[in-house]
Amino acid sequence: MWQLFQFPLCPFSRKVRLVLGEKGIAHELVRENPWERRDEFIDLNPAGETPVIVDPDAGITLIGSQPIVEYFDETVDKMPMIHGNAALRAEIRRLVEWFDEKLFREAVEPLMNERMRKRLVSKESPDTRILRDAMRVANGHLDYIDYLLDHRRWLAGPGLSLADFTAAAHLSVIDYLGALDWRGHKQTKDWYSVMKSRPCFRPLLGERMEVIVPPQHYDKVDF
User: Fold this and answer.
1) What confidence score (pLDDT) does residue 135 get?
2) Cβ(9)–Cβ(117) under 8 Å?
3) Domains of the chain: which residue ranges?
4) pLDDT tens across 66-85, in order?
5) Which of 37, 61, 118, 163 could lock onto 124 through a cystine, CB 3.0 to 4.6 A?
6) An example Gene Ontology cellular component term from the record (predicted)?
7) Domain 86-206 falls under CATH 1.20.1050.10
């Protein structure tokens, strides 16, 4: 069986978990705290970052959310993640990059650092200025998703794709940290409710991090 080395609040781990769930791929979760830099994990991924997925029997090790997702999209026909003509596939990849790089860098990473790492690892108080800025930027990304959904059924076009699962993975982390203001974002809120209702999302919504409690609406489909 596949073993997925992941951290519960890592959006890239969540992205992979959602895709594995959609494709019905059996796997075992192995929690990995990246800041511990365990020798055994560094041997798997010298960058020391999650996620990493391993099939010990086949001798396969896949590193990073996008290589992992594309591997399973190429080898498992169920629920294609990058589909359509060349233009649509390019748009799916563009949005995946937008959420994995821009949204993560501007909002998810600073929020994780201030509200999660400082509390669990360094025992520091969060910087309220950084928190305010990250929450403001996150709200701007909700505006952009509203715009996309004003013109499309799903984020990248007419069909559900990796763009939707990637965005949902990152937003789920921000939402867990209580940093999303859903007011005035009906389009995105309705879309996210649909994403949360998918069976692959249930394990994520049921998990809780030690000492970090999500807002009451976090695991509710109707919120």
Assistant:
1) 97
2) no
3) 2-75, 86-206
4) 999 999 999 999 999 999 99
5) 118
6) cytoplasm
7) yes
